[in-house]
Amino acid sequence: MPNAAKIEKTDVVLIGAGIMSATLGTLLRQLEPDWSISVFERLDAAAAESSDPWNNAGTGHSALCELNYSPANADGSVDVSKAVDINERFQVSRQFWASAVDSGVLENPSTFINPIPHVSFVHGADNVDYLRKRYEALAPHPLFRGMEYIDNPDEFAARLPLMARGRDFSDPIALNWTDGGTDIDFGSLTKQLLAYIGQSGGEIAFGTEVRDLRKQADGSWNVTVRNLRTYKSRVINAKFVFVGAGGGALPLLQKAGIKEAKGFGGFPISGQFLRSTNPELIAAHDAKVYGKAAVGAPPMSVPHLDTRVINGRKGLLFGPYAGWTPKFLKDGSNADLFKSIKPNNIGSLVGVGLTELGLTKYLITELLKSQNGKVGVLEEFMPKADGRDWELITAGQRVQVIRRKGAGGVLEFGTAVISAEDGTIAGLLGASPGASTCVTAMLDVMQRCFPKEYAGWTPQLQQLIPSLGQKLSENQALFSEVWDWTNKSLALTEASSLVQA
Fold first, then answer.
1. Which one of 57, 170, 182, 489 is least enclosed by Cβ atoms within 10 Å?
2. C-alpha angle with apex 297: 291 to 299, nearest 5 degrees?
3. Rounded to 5, what percent of the chain is helix, strand, coil?
């Protein structure tokens, strides 16, 4: 290891070149332009893991169509509280991106965000009844204005011709349809934000792996990194460290030894999608259509027939199909899960193993599915699906949070910010809604880790995010104002010129 005289110094180290690090780095650069920032990424490109556009759904999770955010209660009513909360958080992201476009931090918005209807789809009498109640609960809400309820087969066929072909409409169908949804290429967005950090003086180091994190007596951190091409190591002393390494975050937080990470575990779930290779199918579908998750399936496995816009080209995918691997990263090691097992979290892991038998059964069923079996699932959405029109691709790896609860643990499917008591290090664990609510998550990190500075930052943050500190769901006039502004700045009111994949 280099001696103390050779230790480099920086204000901020960001581990991982994904959407979280890119967002936090951009915010800090705008608020504190004199702070030095270093980003370290073990892969050779930005957004190559969870933020890659083919490794996630790119839905812009705003709870417009994801039914797992609006569950049915025991009495048959629908609980929309989580849907409202997710939508509130997504509106914060929209405002930040619109401000970044207005200031030139981000380029032409169509390179990363495009308008696309968000649609919930169900069939069967009981599910249709649920979706009608969901519509009745959400449609009057300011954040969900414009939502439509559709149960007419002719209207269904007019809007979703691929899904109508060959369908037996004696089985009732229903849709919740919202035109105000978006498709987001988080890969492009991440790369543009990182480019801004680099152009404004930040260090962006690819092919560089963080090997060690050591707390110093003054509260700073010595971060040991190794260049994976030259195998040369460096030690960087940082006042603040953010671990935005996706599935790799938990092992690094464990390595840092902070007490706040104790008891946490991770459960890796991999995924696959069917991607259409038929230009006619791609052209015939123009919506993100989400159904209901299978019994025992994790929320991230909600099936969807999904229009994508990547590099200006329109595509179509269906999935995801859940799988399992002990890797914490798509490009990780088969030893990742086993290395993460520590004396302080083994009780959490065992507890989840005993209580999540339904998930285990679901994963085994998914793993045993053949290619024809996967196409069979697609037929629920497209009765005339032909396997020859689709190719199977491997999606991103997700590590679900296992949190200590009593003597055991509980599996969580959201995102969790972990920060040290002194605010010198923080990290993000979990998956969906993840990227879509990245700005809210990073504001949470900033409030926790920079409490003294945050008060002084607030006026500038309110310029970037006009609704900061307020609930748009309780201020319809403000919501209308920021909605119109973000639609204009992000060019969401104009039809995009897209080339089919």
1. 170
2. 60
3. 40, 25, 35
Say how many CA atoms lie within 13 Å of 397 toward its Cβ: 24
Q: What is the pTM of this model?
A: 0.90
Q: Kindly give the interhelix angle for 186-199 and 19-31, rounded to the nearest 10 degrees.
A: 40
Query: Cis omega (within 30 of 0) on the bond before 320?
Result: yes
Token digits of residue 325: 């691997």
For 447-467, the pLDDT digits (tens) are 999 999 999 999 999 999 999
Q: Which residues of 56-92 are buried (b: 16+ CB within 10 A; e: fewer)?
A: bbbbbbbbbbbbbbbebeeeeebebebbbbbbbbbbb
Distance CA 50, CA 324 (A): 16
Question: Closest by alpha carbon to 303, among 225, 234, 366?
Answer: 366
The closest of 9, 478, 480 to 235, measured between CA atoms, is: 9
Q: Look at the block and give the residue holding tokens 């999606």.
A: 395
What are the structure tokens assigned to 213, written together?
Answer: 């994190």
Q: What are the pLDDT digits (tens) for 284-317?
A: 999 999 999 776 666 567 899 999 999 889 999 9
